[in-house]
Amino acid sequence: MLRTLFTSTPVRSIDLSLNSVHRLFLVGLLGSGIQLGAYANTSDGFATFDANFLPAGMGEQIDVTQFSHRHSIPPGYYDVGILLNEKNIGHMRLLVRKIEGKSVICTTRPLMNLIPLRAEEIDSNKWQQLDDADQCYGLEHWIPDASAHINTSTLHMVISVPQALLERQAQNEVSPLLWDKGVNALILGYDNNYYQSKQGGSVYRSFYNGDNISLNILGLMFRHRGSLSWDEESGAHYSSLRNYVEYGISPLKSRIIVGDTDTSGNLFDSFSLRGVTLYSDDNMLPDSRRGYAPMIRGVAETNARVSIRQNNTLLYETTVSPGPFNIDDLYPTGYGGDLVVTVHESDGRINQFMVPYAAVPQLIRPGITRYSFSAGTLRNMNVSQREKVAQVTVQRGINNLITGYGGILSTPDYHAFMLGGAMGSTWGALALDVTQAQTFTPSRDLTGQSYRATYSKRFNSSNSTVTFAAMRFSSSGYLDLKNAMQVIDHDTRRKADEAEYLFYSPRSRISASLSQGFKDNWGQLYLTAIRQSYWGKGGSNNQLQMGYSNSFRSVSWSFSVNRVNARDGAETQYTLGLSVPLGGGSPQTHLNMNFSHDADGLSSQANLNSSLGAHQQFDYSVGMRHDKKQRTTANAAASLYTPYTSIQGTVEKGRQSHSWSTGLQGSVAILHDGITAGPWHSETMALVDAPYATGAHVEGHSGLTLNHQGRALVPYLMPYRLNDIRLDPQELPLDVELKSTQQQIVPHSGALVKVNFSTSRGRPVLIHTTLPDGQSLPFGASVLDEEGTNLGLVAQGDIIYVRLPAGDSRLRVTSGDEEICMLKVHLSPLVDAQNGFERFEQPCLPTSTL
């Protein structure tokens, strides 16, 4: 009968609530643990149980055939995560059918697209069958030696495919097929604040609102950034800061922006322009392909295990086949430290070699190309005219040793060319480049060069890192873009009797830093020194900073000295910071103290910070501040996060002054099916939609709960990465149940991804029932509603647990292909859903009597 159901009527979604999954799991355990005579065929996981071994009468009550096939589950639709060889590759809704007594997961084209099969393993003619909705084949039909089953205790589809059939992928690489461009939406982000202060007899009032408006349509993202400011003296003023549209180009791992933007500053100094920018987006690369790490090459003589360590810490381990191997997906580890590669052959032999690893910002991985192209007009240069500008930059990882890079920056009156290279070796990482610049003004032409060197080395023996960077300008004729635009602007507007524009362009800049970690929890020491000189100005500006930090148990402290020496004098500042947790509960309360001393005297501040609420939705801070003029003020601040907005407030009181402020922060998303507000705003967000699940907490976000619509805006998602969205159902009313509490999404940068959580609404009901003659129902029999949806199972003691809506419900009890009986249940709509389970005791009657 079950098979007939799936061939003649539509397949309904099965209730995969936590309770129903738990019941399935219990039945599976019980079925596997029943002491029966069993005849097993291990090749296909089939076993035959002899019901005659059961106590007298129980053989007729339990349908033992449901335990015959391994991984047997009720048919229906399942929302599951996908695990490929124990690696999470996505989330999908899949159909399970009962075919010849076996549970078959119907393979779809989207599922096959998630599996990175080698090109030669794809039979395009055979795969055409994937588009036939009437067909249902298991994964093994498409991929030889593959297997798959659904683990109902974790809601995962567990797939096993021989590694030889798969394309090699970088660590934690997420298929672009999973990247979600989100829904069409208008998103309004806001951050406003009203401030008022009083000192003596004067009162100052001001208001500020920063707005962040986004319109997402089919992956196109229109952006507006602006601010409104007001005070009693100047009145109101609105500033439009930036307007642009952007789009992610997945095949190129690139992004295009049309409108107002800033260049990256990777090679030339960053500047603002209005125009078009196309650049490679490193965010689209997996973490194991970003930054710099060397490529590991070697040769294995057998099926070998390769491990890579740095400072005796295991970074990477994999197995390789006999022959040459290549590992290019190590995670970057800061400034580096030589890598020790060990090849463990299957016959017990061990080969070991070292790979140098030192990094500077200019180094990128072998085979990676980073580029950018920008063209438009300059913005925010504080000049009378907007010059046209174009810039092209390219970086290419040539091999483990060398990265080459260069660029061109040009306007009608200014041209700059850069060429350089970076090298990584056993003695450290070094980058060298030269920039040639020409500036043309109505009264003069300036030409000069800039030479730059950057060096970094980590010494493993002493656990120290040295970074040295030097930039020297060989002639006074070298100008960067900003200084060049100011000189051109002045000389263009200068009258004949006016002097030429005086400017002080950088002549040389030298900086060095040392970081030293001490063993046995003796803390961390750092030292930074900077020396800068200018053309046309004598002397130099020097800065020296030294600091030490450590902790004892849960108490941490830091001490730093900062000395600045310029032409107009020298200043030294000493700073001490201390953080002490008060109590060991959660959330913790911290006492933070800071002391600062310089030539003007001593200042100090102490603050007590904590949070309140079941989900830490209320933050507060109280403190005292004593400044260098011997003035003492008391202050307090608080933030409240509601499902719709966040509210902030501050107050400060001194002897002769006091001030206070209040403000709102959050965002509003407008979709075709409604409006949702939230207390946070970020570039990339998710819209959770779980009908009736008001009050469920979104884990990982303080105070973020689903609103009266069952919706919430979840901020701070990582683009192009797997993001877990988890709901805590503890505060749900008893008449609402989440069918799953976790989903994974992979958003495009800037997208608003809608995440739908299925819920069932109905009151929990326990029914004790028997057949009219008092006989027990078959243990494990299925309980269906009138539409054929599986609601639950018959448990021990003739107990049925189901969720039912108010009013009349008819339940069918089936065992195997046989329909046993029906139940009619009536629930009053007046019962409070929080009162707990409702209990009924009534017989299960033959179908013909109802």
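Next protein, fold it too.
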Amino acid sequence: MVPVKSHFGSTMLHRFSKAVLLFVFSAAFVVTTRPADDPATQLKRNFESAKSALSAGDLSEAERHYNQVIALGLRQLANLSLSESSFDQAARELDQAMKFAPSDPDVAVDAAVAWFRAGDVKKARQLAQTVAADYPRHARAQNVLGRIDLYRGDFDAAVRDLQASVALEADFESSYFLGIAYLKAKRLADAQQWFKHLQETMGDSAALHVLFGRAYNIAHFPEPAVVEFRKAVQLDPKYPNAHALLGYSILEFRGEEAYPQARGEFERELKLRPDDYYSLFLLGICTVALRDFPAAEAALLHAKRLHPEESSAYLYLGETYSETKRFQLAVEALENYVRLLHNPEEAPRDVSRAYFLLGQNLRRLGRLAEAQGALAKSQHSREANFRYDVQHIFDEPAAPADGDSHTSDRIAGLLESGSQDQKKSAEAMALRGVKENPAVQQTRAPQQAVVEPKEAKQYRTFASEILASSYNDLGVMRAKASNFKEASEFLKQAAAWKPDLPGLDRNWGLAAYRAELYSDAVPPLGRQLAAHPDDRLVRQLLGMSYFLTDNFVKTAEVLQPFVNAPPDDAGLLLAWGTALVRTRSPEQATRIFRLLIEQNANNPTVHFFLGQAYAQEKDYSNALSEFKTALQIDARLPEAHYFMGLVHLRQSDFESAAAEFRSELEIRPGDPVTSYHLGYTLLMQGHADQAAALLREVVQAKPDYEMARFELGRALLQQGDAAGAIESLEAAKKLSPDRDATYFQLSQAYRRVGRLDEAQQALEAYQKLIETNRLKKRESLEADKP
């Protein structure tokens, strides 16, 4: 596999210990697939094997190879995603890979690592535990499980896991993490003995001693850390970071008395790497403490130029300017510090000192009100610091083993979050792994190969096309076996990898349609028809898919080119005619239904929709005839009596309309639309009491039925129940504020209860709406469902 990019030195941190420790621990972990060939060759070879088996008709062997191709391709792309820090994407890719290689423990361990990097520690641990349980001799599963337990702070479990990993396969990473786990579990003697064993096994090197020193540092054992870093610089005075790490460890171990010695180490590091931010920053701290302000200013300004977004350098610049009586510069630097500090609660001593210095300098500039505010914030931070000390009173102190604290207040402020930062350092190393392996990397400045963006993009394109073709072929195989739902899912995955794969949209659309996944079928069929407008089958299926998803406008639009030569397909013609009825194109609908009746005279649904088409054309005689024919064929055909009732209402035959609505309610009891129209009919016949009772049931069943509430208000007003009418009419007004007739009825109701001002307002609103909505006259009858 192509190694991932190193993140060494890329994370800008805010605290002293974080600045050093996380910086040196931020190596990236690579998912290892250990292929015999390069990735492209291996993927292509598997794909060609699958194609050959498919061509030979050996479907079982073809599917086996396609599964291997997809699992391998996804695993390779997940590795690329990890190299790009796209951890969530890598985890999703490996989850998919596991579906095609369910019995491959290596894929599952890769997925555990990816989810670990993505931050889902629980899922990562479950995956690693499952592999370790099913494959007790899987060393890498034990390694990952140990790292996860180390990250979680379960150090005893981490020791057990990593001991198991080392016993199976004594690789350096597992061995090194075992040493860290010993240290975090407070087993110092075991760790020292284990590191001695590693040194004897691997040979002496600066790289190895730096790693040992890092382990002691993150476990908060500064004295042995100093010993290890001294050995490193003795073996190789130019080893990267060794002097900086030694300087930091000396400060943590000996405190303020070690400033001159630590300064020397930081200066030696900067001779090797003049633009190293952390060495510059640490040198600045030392020289401020040693009151060498010119040297401090030079180092801190250099650090600020490298990373102006970092807050800590501004604090010590502020102190430098304050000590050298450059008060305005001090104020600017300290204001930048407090502005850029992201987590002030983690550094209460520094925050308190920053505000105190800011207050003092503001006072010297005569800005007394601002000075008072800054000093108040300093006091608040001191109180927060006291609470912090109480909470951490039993934490392991950042002090030498002899118990004699050599730490000044300044150093205490820098190291106050040391325990937390070192915990984060251990977590960072457990999360990302170890880059340096002294057994194989003996160069002075070990560098990790990186994936260049252009190369990564090219390989992703190559692998994506193979994945798309593999998913497509599996989908076609499933479709030929009439397993259309699985076929559709495979083809959907193919589209995710290469949407423009030739033939894919047609395959996917056909499979989704046959699987009755009509919403899924519409997009690929639509794209296919746009590219191939003469494809009659695709046009028919797209039209039917729109119809079956209740998009009647698009159904009529897609099928319109068939108008001069309709397909000989009764189901399609019925859908087309129905869509034309629903979109109020009765003339075309009549033509389609007449054609259908010639072929399907005994189909009640055809007569039903033809009746609707006639009704829309106001040919009520033929409409009633078709509805009656439909009911003769099927006496309980839903909605036939309802539409006959509507036709009778259009003809003002209220008695016949009421009879039809009652017949419909015998077939569909409680239907609110039919009940509303029966209530309206009764009201038109003068039966206000019956209408009100029925309309109450309608609004109870469908509270948002605005027209039912309006007619109920009218019925109650006719009964003399003005208060009840107002309640119903006001509800109707809320549902449809632009309905002019509602305001007229409200004006009458308000007047009856003596609310004359409101009556006048309602009447004026009615008159205004009449003027603005001349073309929106109210019709109490609505043929369409609300």
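About the second fold: The radius of gyration is 40 Å.
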